[in-house]
Design a protein that fits this description.
Isopropylmalate Dehydrogenase; alpha/beta; about 350 residues; two-stranded antiparallel ribbon; 2 domains
């Protein structure tokens, strides 16, 4: 049984300070002032940076200091939990000096979700290379939140496409070099991914008896073993095990046909084996309006489907015209998912 929780509190991280995140947050705040999202929005980032970059694109958002003891934000205002940067941010030019400051926003957001202060988390794009240049072992949001919450396996799923027939693509592996993918495709990894997708589609997305398609690893799903043995030896047994557990799952299916629209719409989600097997189809269908969702965490986390857009950020005129659609979609989906809580 479930109930609806009105007006959840969302944490929003700005992401890379030299990227397009601060401008997108300003656009979100302006939109919230005019037509309120049904949520309390708390942005975690450098307040001075947010003010400066808003002025740069001609926005005048109404920011308020975050008060964790307050029951609500001032009407139409976005709150800011100030996390000062270590060095001034120059648009388009990431500075590893600020990497630790960026990481602290993710830590605060994650911990706030874990304690219940926030009902969900929406993340702006980070520049992974800047984090790694600073010596931080950061491979991505998905892996970071899994480690910090001690979650043994989480699943990256992107959502996009038409509202009446959304395309949902989940990944068994995420940010790995292609040469490392086959070894990471184990029966356990595939089976656990299917189980998480099935559980979260039913619990968070309110889909009864979700239908799941699973891609093969090799071309033509191995073509009877002529193009690789992983499909028959690893993926098929994982699918069989999932069916025993009650999952409605098909596969392994050739990745070059399962994303054909008339086939894809038969399923509530498609499980791809690796990043660039599944995400090109999703982004071709809905880039700029897709949403990245992390399944399996103890809280809701969504994100934009694009990167830091340094080329846009460096030019104020181009930054002013940046598409805020994916950020809006990520917030709207986070609100919808957070509002479905188990009774």
């Amino acid at each position: 049984m479930s109930h609806l929780t009105p007006h959840p509190t969302l944490a929003i991280t700005v992401g890379e300070p030299a990227g397009i995140g601060p401008e997108l947050v300003a656009m979100i705040a302006a939109r919230h002032a005019q037509a309120h999202f049904p949520a309390r929005l708390v942005v975690i980032g450098d307040r001075a940076l947010l003010d400066e970059r808003a002025r740069r694109i001609g926005e005048a958002p109404r920011y308020a200091a975050y008060d964790p003891l307050a029951f609500a934000a001032p009407a139409g205002m976005v709150e800011v939990w100030d996390h000062p940067l270590a060095a001034p941010a120059i648009p388009g030019h990431p500075d590893p000096t600020n990497a630790r400051s960026v990481l602290s926003t993710l830590e605060s957001a994650c911990d706030g979700c874990a304690t219940g202060a926030f009902a969900a988390l929406v993340t702006g794009p980070v520049q992974k290379s800047a984090m790694q240049d600073a010596g931080l072992p950061f491979t991505g949001h998905t892996e970071f939140f899994a480690e910090r919450t001690h979650t043994p396996r989480v699943v990256m799923m992107l959502v996009g496409g038409a509202t009446d027939a959304p395309l949902r693509v989940a990944l068994v592996t995420t940010h790995l070099p292609l040469r490392d993918v086959p070894a990471a495709i184990t029966q356990a990894a595939v089976g656990e991914t299917i189980a998480i997708v099935q559980h979260e589609l039913a619990r968070r997305f309110a889909i009864a008896g979700p239908r799941i398609a699973v891609c093969g690893l090799n071309p033509h799903a191995g073509e009877g073993g002529h193009l690789g043995s992983e499909d028959a030896d690893v993926i098929e047994p994982a699918i069989a095990g999932a069916r025993i557990q009650g999952a409605d799952v098909a596969g392994p299916l050739p990745a070059d046909t399962v994303f054909v629209p008339e086939i894809a719409r038969r399923y509530d989600a498609i499980v791809a084996m690796y990043h660039d097997q599944g995400l090109p189809a999703l982004k071709a269908a809905s880039f700029g309006h897709g949403v990245n969702v992390t399944l399996g965490l103890p809280f809701v986390r969504t994100s934009v489907d694009h990167g830091t857009a340094l080329d846009l950020a460096v030019d104020a005129k181009r930054a002013k015209t940046a598409d805020v659609g994916s950020f809006v979609a990520a917030i709207e989906l986070a609100i919808a998912l957070a509002s479905r809580a188990d009774a």
